[in-house]
Amino acid sequence: MPAPDDILYCSSGTEALFLLLSYLRDAKGCKRVLLSPFTCESVLESVTASRLHPVFVDFVSDSLSIDVKDLQRKAIAGTEDIVLYTHLFGFSPGYAEVNAFCRDKKVFLIEDCAHLIMDWVRTGACQGDAAFFSFGLSKPLNIGKGGTCWIRKEMRDEFLLYANSLPSTEIGTIPAIITLVSSYIRTNPVLLDAAVAFMSKEKSTPIARPYSEHRLRLDEWTRLNSFQISLIEKLLSIFAPMQRMRREMLATYEKNLKDLYGVQFLCGESALLANNAPVRVPLIVSAEQRDPLLRASIQNGLWTSTWIHFLISSNCSNETVCHQAADILKRIIALPVGFSHEEMAIIVSLRKQFQAIIKVHEK
Prior knowledge:
Oligomer: single chain
CATH superfamily of the domain at 239-362: Aspartate Aminotransferase, domain 1
Order of helices and strands: EHEHEHEHEEEHEHHEHHEEHHEH
Structural class: alpha/beta
Strand content: 5-15%
């Protein structure tokens, strides 16, 4: 299937969001972005670099879903607010409610689709005013680097005119190939096993890299190389087997881990988007169980992590940390999906170790 022709390719998902936000600030007068506190710090970098004010919205208890009641308290109807909704790990909890709120209040909705397939907007399921995608490591379409943004038809010509009026440069072919090779090396199962062996010796959760504000600048943006764009089109055309494998992985996780005492899935087959393939599967466990379960899965060869180690709202001194999200942060494990079929056998054997750890903590 060919790539959509109504999108703008650039160097990263971070830059794609930055371009969208800068356009909405300059052309539409937007001033604030309402967003989840549980996402990549690069998202906050895009918000602050575009000179918009971040407003963090808490979660519903024991869910990654944005609390619409909290959103109602904080959002201002009209054109000055933007809601940024994240399809986290490729799942969309509370999406319909957030979309309905934005439509009713006429608040601009941007969808963070870094964990979704790029043809998401073509399916008709995308209900937002704009969306951006990423092609970095661990993403559904991984070429090591790159991103793209889409905006609804009524604003597209104005947005593209705005973006094309800015100075830009194109990624060179040789750097594009080097990035692709580096991406393959970093996701090769053999090297992942070596990295897992090293990580299994760790006694605590890694600390996230320092937050870097205003890393982006609007005086120039970077276009994706034509070679990379062609590669993305090819990957889209052969993506169906990867999509099936990731869905099989999700089903294997659910079958073997879902009914364990104290383990709660924050996703499910019924909630999985019909056109999507998840990149991670989030579990909630007790704070006491989290580190032992994390180490057990890593030692068995699963590339498991907490994914995000802090709330981005904690970097803003004038913002109160969202309490429900902070509680989930202490208890979340992000299980990998889609590196190899061998992982399915590991999941089955992992169940017994999880049971043993849970029994120890029950006592």
